[in-house]
Amino acid sequence: MKMKLNLLFLTVVVVAGTLPAAGAFAQGVATQPADQPAERIDPVSKLAHEELLAKARAGKIDVYFEGDSITRRWGATDYPQFLENWRQNFFGWNAADFGWGADSTQNILWRLENGELDGVHPKVIVLLAGTNNVGAFTMPGGEDAKVEDVTRGVAAILRVMRGKAPEATIVLTAIFPRNDNMGEPTAVIPVINRINKNIAAMADGKKVRYLDINDKLADADGVLFDGLTMDKLHLALPGYQIWADALKPLFHELIGPPAKEDHAPPPTGVPSAKE
Fold first, then answer.
1. 1 lies in a domain?
2. Residue at 263 is within a domain
3. Whether 154 contacts 170, CB under 8 Å
4. Could you tell me if 203 and 196 are in contact, meaning their C-beta atoms sit under 8 angstroms apart?
5. What predicted TM-score, i.e. pTM, was given to this entire model?
6. Helix axis angle, 237-254 relative to 80-90, nearest 10°?
């Protein structure tokens, strides 16, 4: 059964064709577990889902990126500098970006369960998920409950991915540090660290590889290094390059060197919401 995302605090605002960043959402109470799929019902997200369905059926996809806005911006037409960096790093590996801005684990689950990975058969899947659950929701039970909830959400995404693409190797990326909490920038770092410890245990070193680049993004206290993010949450170009430098040796191992031609589907951006 299709489930609608029904969060008490959630209002999606579309301004000049852009989506609000994860940090733009007010704190609210999560009303749906992180391991239950939930549809985004705003018009732009509905259109984006249709575009991503079409993208999944176009070209050849050997590397499938999945996540939220941090993933989406890297291969998006509305971020041309990031897209150029994406092409410089991944051309020849047939990489396609299926991230969508402001998605929680619930939303990623819904998209995966509603066709965006069906019939794709990638060799590698790169997953980065969970920061929007950490940053936007409070839960009864406090930090312990949030850690357990987000851990279950990431585990659910892995189960769906392995069911729909059993031959793929999944690169499970640690949730990146974020310093966008007003008043106490590193307030969520302990929660992120605990979630990352949990999801690291999901990797078997074979079909699920765990990738943690956080020591290159922030110090031991979770304070982000200067210049690596745009807003203390979303990566800037140097941050994306750090991620790329960690991914490319895995792609060489799992796929081989990049080809001289690339057959991935054309990149997408934020669609125009016209009804």
1. no
2. no
3. no
4. no
5. 0.90
6. 30
CA–CA distance from 119 to each of 54, 181, 196, 248 (Å)?
Answer: 12, 40, 30, 25
- CATH number of the domain that 150 lies in? 3.40.50.1110
Q: What is the DSSP letter of 22?
A: G
Write the DSSP symbol of residue 24: G
**Residue 248 corresponds to which tokens in the numbers above?**
């490319």
Type of residue at 68: D
121: in domain: yes
Q: For 160, left (φ over 0), alpha (ψ -120 to 50), or beta? A: alpha
Q: Which residues pair with 229 in a beta bridge?
A: 235
Residue 13 forms part of a structural domain:
no
Do 145 and 33 touch, CB atoms closer than 8 A? no
Q: For 177-189, how does the pLDDT look when each residue is reduced to its tens digit (9 = 90+)?
A: 999 999 999 999 9
- Domain range for 98 is 35-254
Name the domain count of the chain: 1
Contacts of 144 (CB under 8 A, 6+ apart): none
Q: Could you read off the pLDDT of 225-243 as tens digits, one per residue?
A: 999 999 999 999 999 999 9
d(CA 169, CA 123): 6
